[in-house]
Q: What sequence folds into this?
């Protein structure tokens, strides 16, 4: 399958590669996430696909939602589409080049595994925008790095490089920049080489309850994002990010 923003292709016998095509930053919106979900579902129904690689074209894996350009984005619809990613039955390896920022970090963490580079950067930078985190990071970030490290990353919004991301558990393997996609596909090949019925069964057991947890988390996240979206601090956070300066927050 293919469309303007998302493509899905077969690599080898049993691996599907789903790619985002909004370079250089691969900002998402509801349409893009719906495209990824549709690609996952199509690959699940293909009869040949046993594992998926989520990749992107351009300098960065995904910089999340472009707040400056998507001020009116329907977050409820966006998270409804995101929930389909958590419900997909095939294992997913994300190939994370450059930055996975904000919702892009959430998208990366919706995958089962992440391959990054030493130059990759992860950041749940919502607090730096005076905003609430989203994309079920309430669930996925503590699961990956532990509650204490998740609190540190969410409350500071700080950036983490590839080597520290590996140590924390934000990513599972590091590859050279020129070899990232090849290594992510090789990882997916390892998953695809195992018994496909067993992989689905084990994965379903490990993720039991995850879809409902993600749904409840995104309900709370959406409500808080809606509340904070109208604050002066959020407007200042977005301006400061666009102007590449430190924000001045007033708690209002």
A:
């Amino acid at each position: 399958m293919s469309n303007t923003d998302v493509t899905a292709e077969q690599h080898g016998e049993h691996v599907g590669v789903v790619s985002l095509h909004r370079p250089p930053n691969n900002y998402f919106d509801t349409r893009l996430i719906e495209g990824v979900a549709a690609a996952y579902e199509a690959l699940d129904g293909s009869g040949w696909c046993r594992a998926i690689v989520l990749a992107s074209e351009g300098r960065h894996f995904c910089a999340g939602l472009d707040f400056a350009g998507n001020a009116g984005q329907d977050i409820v619809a966006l998270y409804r589409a995101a929930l389909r990613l958590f419900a997909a039955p095939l294992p997913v390896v994300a190939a994370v080049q450059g930055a996975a920022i904000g919702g892009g970090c959430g998208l990366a963490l919706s995958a089962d595994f992440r391959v990054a580079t030493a130059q990759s950067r992860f950041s749940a930078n919502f607090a730096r925008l005076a905003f609430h985190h989203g994309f079920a990071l309430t669930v996925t970030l503590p699961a990956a790095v532990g509650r204490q490290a998740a609190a540190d990353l969410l409350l500071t919004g700080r950036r983490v490089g590839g080597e520290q991301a590996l140590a924390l558990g934000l990513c599972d393997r590091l590859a050279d920049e020129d070899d990232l996609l090849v290594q992510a596909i090789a990882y997916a090949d390892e998953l695809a080489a195992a018994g496909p019925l067993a992989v689905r069964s084990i994965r379903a057991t490990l993720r039991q309850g995850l879809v409902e947890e993600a749904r409840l988390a995104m309900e709370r996240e959406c409500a808080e994002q809606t509340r904070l979206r109208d604050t002066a601090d959020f407007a200042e956070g977005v301006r400061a990010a666009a102007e590449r300066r430190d924000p001045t927050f007033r708690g209002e």
